[in-house]
Amino acid sequence: MDYSVTKMQLPSPAKLNLFLHITGQREDGYHELQTLFQFIDLCDTLDFTLTRNNQVTITPTIDQLPTEENLIYKAAKLLTPFKKDSSFGIDIFLTKQLPMGGGIGGGSSNAATTLLALNVLWECHLTVERLAELGVQLGADVPVFVMGFAAFAEGVGEKLQKVELDTPYFLLIKPDCHVSTGQIFTDKYLTRDTPPIRISHALKLGGHNDCLKVVIKHNPEVEEAYLWLKNHGDAKLTGTGACLFLAFDNLRDAERVKSSTPNKWQSWVCRGCNTSPTHDALNQWIEQNRG
Ligand SMILES: C[C@@](CO)(OP(=O)(O)O)[C@H](O)COP(=O)(O)OP(=O)(O)OC[C@H]1O[C@@H](n2ccc(N)nc2=O)[C@H](O)[C@@H]1O
Ligand SMILES: Nc1ncnc2c1ncn2[C@@H]1O[C@H](COP(=O)(O)OP(=O)(O)O)[C@@H](O)[C@H]1O
């Protein structure tokens, strides 16, 4: 055994798309993007317990989501061929805090956290690059969570260049609606021809979110929250929404605007991070449990 300890607890953070440009569409229908990913310290928690029964269990189940469709389960199944011992199984306890379908990548993050944890507990010994390559099959956002650094991303989000960004406080708001990513990407009025920019341009000048107009058209609740947040600064949509965010230099200002946020919207104050909290915790676990 690489490690005698059979339990591991890891945070599974959300991401923000600080901007999201759609630069084209591939023949398979998927869209070519340019985006700036940053993690935030708002996290789910996953507790892993290694077993010897060759089973994958996840508790509690997510409402209306069969276990086989849970991205945590799919991630575990992807790693099964690489287990050092075929008897290895895993019990996973999920503490969900991240809203689903909010454009903050909770499902993708859970999948990446599972890949990283099982790679160690099941002694698969795959590189993070290989895990990211496997992970993209589960979702375009999985690679950035596996690699664990803030990144300028291209392709469908899997071609990553590491970046160091300011780490502001963010006020994150979730309007009370669920945006369908598929519906946004199939809308004929979606802008798909934003000219590609260079990374230096992206870092200096930022960008916008091409999905905003179409998301607002389909979801009046997002428009209402966007207009409200815009009164306080440069409000942005993350991914295909529904979550919106606004950056602040200091915690006090972020908390002040949060306290005036209408109760009908969930809201959080969080901090941007350039390294994924999953990686910080995993490195600490490895350091503590090395033989
Ligand atoms: C838009 C982004 C930006 O970070 O974030 P989210 O809003 O989902 O968090 C992602 O690229 C979301 O990627 P991913 O998580 O794989 O999207 P999925 O829910 O699997 O995709 C749903 C559908 O959207 C379309 N889709 C998705 C990604 C992409 N680059 N082009 C697409 O055309 C496809 O039709 C796909 O079947
Ligand atoms: N472990 C998981 N956590 C959240 N959502 C999951 C999970 N597994 C599968 N899903 C599915 O993925 C969808 C998108 O989830 P999520 O990644 O949180 O949204 P988004 O990419 O919009 O931020 C959910 O609506 C749900 O059906």
TrEMBL record:
Keyword Nucleotide-binding (UniProt): yes
Tree of life domain: Bacteria
Domain GHMP kinase C-terminal residues, every copy: 201-260
Active site: K15, D141
Gene Ontology molecular-function annotations: 4-(cytidine 5'-diphospho)-2-C-methyl-D-erythritol kinase activity
Binding residues for ATP: P99, M100, G101, G102, G103, I104, G105, G106, G107, S108, S109
Membrane-spanning intervals of the chain: none
The protein's Enzyme Commission number: 2.7.1.148
Domain GHMP kinase N-terminal: 70-148
Keywords: ATP-binding, Isoprene biosynthesis, Kinase, Nucleotide-binding, Transferase
Annotated pathway: Isoprenoid biosynthesis; isopentenyl diphosphate biosynthesis via DXP pathway; isopentenyl diphosphate from 1-deoxy-D-xylulose 5-phosphate: step 3/6
One Pfam family from the record: GHMP_kinases_N
Catalytic reaction equation(s): 4-CDP-2-C-methyl-D-erythritol + ATP = 4-CDP-2-C-methyl-D-erythritol 2-phosphate + ADP + H(+)
InterPro entries attached to this UniProt entry: GHMP_kinase_C_dom, GHMP_kinase_C_sf, GHMP_kinase_N_dom, IspE, Ribosomal_Su5_D2-typ_SF, Ribsml_uS5_D2-typ_fold_subgr
PANTHER family reported for this sequence: 4-DIPHOSPHOCYTIDYL-2-C-METHYL-D-ERYTHRITOL KINASE, CHLOROPLASTIC
Function: Catalyzes the phosphorylation of the position 2 hydroxy group of 4-diphosphocytidyl-2C-methyl-D-erythritol.
UniProt record similarity statement: Belongs to the GHMP kinase family. IspE subfamily.
Annotated protein name in UniProt: 4-diphosphocytidyl-2-C-methyl-D-erythritol kinase
Organism: Marinomonas foliarum
